[in-house]
Structures are given as C-alpha cells and as structure tokens.
Amino acid sequence: xxMDDYEVRFNDVLLDIFDGILxxxxxxxxxxxxxxxxxxxxxxxxxxxxxxxxxxSETAARLGVTTGTLTVAVDRLVRKGYVIRERDQADRRxxxxxxxxxxxxxxxxxxxxxxxxxxxxxxGLDENRREILLDMLENIDGFIRExxxxxxxxxxxxxxxxxxxx
Length: 166
Prior knowledge:
Arc Repressor Mutant, subunit A; 2 domains; single chain; three-stranded antiparallel beta sheet; mainly alpha; 6 helices
C-alpha cells in the first residue's frame, strides 16, 4: 500500500514535530544549568511533581515503567542532588520520593519550555480552533497509546510463550 501526498506530508510533519521537540528539549538541557540531566531524568522529575512526596509505585505508574527501572533512575537523581528518597514513617515498606530545591528549579525551567511551546502553537487561534486542535492531538495520543498497549501485550505474549518452551 502506498501513501498519497497528504499522508506523506502529514507523516513528515508529525515526525518533524516529534523530533524537533526532543532535539529542542535535549539542547536546552545541554546548554542550561542542568546539563547533567537527560530527557528521561527530566521526565522522571516531572512525574514526581513539585509539591507532594510520591510513592515509588505511583511515580513508576505515571511513567509507565517498573519500580525496578524507576529505582535505577531515582538512584542517579539522588546522587545528582535532584531527588530525596525516604521511607514512609507509618509503613516502612513504602518509599517516597520528592524533589530537592535543585530538582524543583529544573522542573520549573523545563515546565516553562512546555508553556512557551503551547503558547506559540496556539497563539492567534480562537477558542473553537484551540478546541479542534486539542481534540486532534488527543485523538493522535489515544491512537499512539493504543499501539503501545498492543505492542506491550504482544511482547508479553511472546515472552510467556518462550518461557513455556524452555
């Protein structure tokens, strides 16, 4: 099946947007005061959030990763001085994470980038067009999430099949 001109242009623009956002985020991190952070680490800070201490489980769920994967990331962020990790006083099995002052500053600067991005994209759009744009983006997001779930399910099925065969 071959893509027509519209599909090619649409796909190219979508990929350019995705790549451009990632490259811009990365360059902003590399040249700023937080050049020791990766994009993944910055997104981990965002998932922890500014104000409340979150459990490792809550944070892992927000990121869509295992608590084991999050533990590795949090270990690095603790060493770099962006995150504090503490055991819950009432239930010592629960580990809570929160941002340090340095972590909050990095969060706010990165958040400003996203604010400017949205402001620039929606500048000049009336309320109706803003809603149409948001509906379209939510539709794209829904499709992508559906594909991620599908591939995760397929990967899990293959993994189970392989473990039964061995």
